[in-house]
Design brief:
Helices cover 25% and strands 26% of the residues. The chain has 197 residues and is α/β, with parallel strands linked by helices.
Length: 197
């Protein structure tokens, strides 16, 4: 599966043009949030994404509200997966949007427990976690020499050992990759990055 991952587009027409040019080579597009600037032109974004005629898994960032992103599902090719799981050919995708500023998220930790049980039951061929916030203490959460990521997400990554984590939020780390064991963690940035799974 060839994934085109993207994050933090913030309504950029240049970023969308890049995405449009790359999309024909993708089997699946994943957007890790902050596709708008405080929800401006969201309807337009969803419409443009649906015209690419590629399946899109979407979570919101800190620039979008969860309840306003549900409208994305009016478009057949878009799946809003915050707090949900989505299966494609025994590849399990888990989505957790919003936030980006908390070190610890109790709500995520409760969801993580449910997901760990589900992973054990399903035994997916590949496990992919999509979050807006980066996991704590990685190359992706380093800002001015300090780690600003999420410890709850990091704990889940260590326990669940996903094959891939796609995240964003910290623009300084656009394009940066990190590995925890076999898990590849990537901030694909606003111009997108191909990932083969």
């Amino acid at each position: 599966m060839k994934i085109l991952a993207i994050t933090d587009m913030h309504g950029s027409s240049k970023a969308f043009k890049e995405l449009k040019n790359k999309s024909p080579k993708a089997d699946l597009i994943i957007n890790a949030g902050d596709f708008s600037i405080f929800e401006q032109k969201m309807d337009e974004f969803f419409e443009k994404m649906s015209k690419l005629k590629k399946p899109l898994l979407l979570i919101h960032g800190n620039h979008e509200m969860e309840e306003d992103c549900v409208q994305a599902e009016l478009f057949e090719s878009i799946e809003f997966i915050h707090k949900k799981e989505h299966i494609i050919d025994n590849y399990l995708f888990l989505g957790w949007g919003g936030g980006g500023f908390s070190r610890i998220e109790k709500e995520f930790e409760k969801q993580a427990e449910k997901w760990l049980k589900k992973i054990k039951k399903i035994k997916p061929e590949k496990l992919i976690l999509i979050t807006h916030a980066p996991p704590y203490n990685t190359k992706l959460d380093l800002v001015y020499g300090e780690h600003a990521g999420n410890k709850s997400i990091k704990k889940f990554v260590i326990k669940a050992k996903p094959d891939l984590v796609i995240c964003g939020h910290l623009h300084e780390n656009s394009g940066v990759e990190h590995k925890i064991g076999k898990t590849l963690i990537i901030n694909p940035g606003p111009y997108g990055k191909f990932i083969e799974l």
